[in-house]
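Sat 14:20. Reprocessing the chain from the morning session after the first attempt stalled halfway. Input below, unchanged.
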Amino acid sequence: MSDMKFERTARHAAAWMRAEAERVADPNAALARLMADESVEGGLDPALPEQAVPARRQRLWVGLASAAAVVAMIVGIVVVGGEQSEAPTLISPATTVEPTPATTPAPTTTPDSTLAPSTTVSPNPDPDVEAPLAGRGIAFVELAALLDVYGGSGIDHACVTDWRCTDLVFDITGAPISFDPTTGTITRHVRNGASFTLPSVDDFTYLVAGGPDNVVYVLQPSSRAESNDLVAYSLADGDAGREIARFPTSYGIGDGELIPSPNGLVTASPSQPGMQPAEIDEIAVPWVDRNGNNVSSPVPVVRADFSGITVTIEGRTWTFADPVEGAYPALRQFMPTFDGGFVGVLQHAADGRTAVVRGWSDGTVETWELPPEVGVFANLEPDRTGRVLIPTGERFIAAQLFAVRDGDFWTERRDFDNEAWTVTYPGLDDYLDANNPGWENDPIGFANALAGRVDSPAETRTIEIINSDADGAEIHVTTEGFLDDDSGFGSRLVVRLRATDQGYRVDQVDRTQACQPGRGHQDYQPAPCI
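Finished this time. Tokens:
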């Protein structure tokens, strides 16, 4: 069997066995059924040596993200979803870690206290009724009940099996892109966002990344029966679904992860020692525009050393202890945030304990741990606003697990000129001179600060740098999904900044809006809704 065919077989077998084990909570029975299952491509050898199990188990326990770990699961290592507690369980508050300070200027404002969810878990009313599974073995309906601040994100969640459900990635602007495995449809979830249906799908089709210029990268079946290709498709309105480039690849479970970098996707091998990706200039798959030309992107680079944990994003560094004491190093689960920090999801390689970590622009880190009674391997997706998206079996909800810090935003006066469609910020320059917040040196953080907090879980925000040079920058900030406005659907700020010796300062901010269906123009214009 070729390496790729083996990897695909191993991945299928491991996922099949985990799903089976979650249903019956009996690893031995699951293994027996797996060995007898003739549908598994290539079959499995029931006479695997028992003495090989301990060594393989040890490698899995330390989070080896490779084919060896999946082979270990095939010969008897399974992860079983946690059982629900008989009594209500109180969520522990988010904890704050004081790490090595960030290497960039830090805001001088005092952070708010962290959000400490205080609701309790309601026991399953009928112990004979199995709680719904969504993703990696957690009853997400129960998880949703734990959260104080959450709401529908407007993104549907669907599953073919318990382990194969809707994929989510985010492009450089922060726009969510989903792949629905039940229909093969890829969608960009913004106003007038495009969608298309893939020409072919198999069990291992999934989203890898959203690139620049409305291009999405998908691992997909190839014309070669024993391999998959990484395919770049247009996701632009009027052009969605056009294949732009195809990259033959043997990328699979033994090759680590493909991580976005400024010039393309690089390979990270978190099972290897030291910082990963090891070399951000060794491009595995280049970014291409919709004409097929190689391009670059201002994507932040996330690198991590999981012996710590150390996270580095564009020269800024956070160092903190592993909150689950055995994290599975999935770098795709770390998302740079618009405010100059990050949000990441860590999972224990063996027992599936899950924690969410939030890095702030001042170098501090907070942690929110999923109560173990709820389940394990929670399929949480971080976004660039600092929230996490949680599948409930029908849709994703957006949860704000950490209190937003006012120091990351301009919270004072804003003046709107409804004739010129401009916004001014009286006192802003004085505030910047006196406080030197970190975002005055970051065009994305500056534009995000002017736009204000994203308060509703239904709202999404994208930020796009239109141009940037030594003299200044132009940034577009779009916030949409206003449920409390029956006429306006979203607003867009066109922020023009000038560079000074003290940091960025505002030249001009223009405002446009789009309307709710049936209430006026559906694109962004400097015009009222009806």
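The chain has seven helices and 32 strands.
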